[in-house]
């Protein structure tokens, strides 16, 4: 099975999470996408969020150790990594995504949805996400991920 690297970012503001409506999957997802050649996961996360939403972000640190040497340095660590099954679409065969999942907060820019890449964009409360139909309106694992972090991180996101 072909494996591709991707990065996704759950952006939190005022106890809500920003979601985009993905054209290919016809579902609400976190902003994100494939890593470009020679791009690290956090670089891809920053780029994809800006391209899709117009926002700059600041990662919510998950570091418990940090290294900064001439030959090795820490990069933002994902909140979670998922192996996702991606069905065949058009001329692309079924494949897997190794998805680096980050949590962030807005840090500038303007909310400017890129309607070439996405169909819609909106802020959701946990209750609004849970009201969506799993695996129809939103992937069930997307709801699981949001449930895992929003209650604990939303208290620090005013």
Detailed description of the structure:
The mean pLDDT is 93. This protein has one domain: Alpha-Beta Complex (Nucleoside Triphosphate Pyrophosphohydrolase). 21% of the residues lie in helices and 37% in strands. By secondary structure, it is an alpha+beta fold. A hairpin with a 2-residue loop joins strand 1 (3-13) and strand 2 (16-22). Strands 1, 2, 3, 4, 5, 6, 7 and 8 form an 8-stranded mixed β-sheet that branches. It has helices spanning 41-53, 126-131, 140-153; strands at residues 3-13, 16-22, 27-29, 32-34, 55-59, 80-86, 95-109, 118-124. The protein is globular, with a radius of gyration of 15 Å.
CATH class reads: Alpha Beta
Beta-strand percentage range: 35-45%
Global mean pLDDT: 93
Count of discrete alpha- or pi-helical segments spanning 4 or more residues:
3
Per CATH, the superfamily is Nucleoside Triphosphate Pyrophosphohydrolase
Q: Please outline the major beta sheet.
A: 8 strands, mixed
For the record, the count of structural domains works out to 1
CATH topology: Nucleoside Triphosphate Pyrophosphohydrolase
